[in-house]
Amino acid sequence: MITLRQLLAAVGCFIGLLYLLATFASPASKPAPAAIIAHATPRPDLVTRAQQAAAEQHLASARLTTLERTKRQLDRRQTAADQMAAYRQRHLDAHRTEWSNLILRHWSQYQNLHAAAGRSPALETPCTICDDSFLKFCLICDGHNDGKCPECHGSGHLPGGDICPACSDTGKCFMCAGTGKMPCPFCDQRGMVYFDHAPPSFVPIPL
Ligand SMILES: [Zn+2]
Ligand SMILES: [Zn+2]
Ligand SMILES: [Zn+2]
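Above: the input record for the complex with zinc ion. Below: its predicted structure, written as tokens.
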């Protein structure tokens, strides 16, 4: 027969045992979440790193594409620049007759101006052949003195798509800069004829 005292002692022992078990069990169970976290943490890191690497690669590839495009454009511009003199000379040569006729037409007037410049104290005199150093027309322009480049007719490009070497992509006539009025070959930018300057060229030259 178990007495009440014995029952209480047994219950007390049981509770004590439970407490001991709980105390010993808790330190062992604590590392578990840490271990889970330790194992779980690298996953987002790896994903993020992979995303960053992919983004960096995409950026580098975009930069490379831009650089390649810029280089192609620069190469095209350089090619056009290298060919500019030859292209322009071809158009100048094509207008040889009109040019020499222009000089001949005003030759006696130019000689009078040159003589007047020789008599002036500053050895210069205002040109009366032109208006403010420009003629009223352009010999080089497309057909009707419309200011368009004679090579590309205003598009800025050759038929194949390359930059027009004559106008460097502007589409404007290289002689009159698109105005339809070419610089006067008898005077300078100030519109003056000088006694000690060479006479105008009888062959077409860039002005
Ligand atoms: Zn002039
Ligand atoms: Zn022109
Ligand atoms: Zn052109």
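Notes for the reader.
The first strand starts at residue 124 and ends at 126.
Confidence is low (pLDDT under 50) at residues 27-32.
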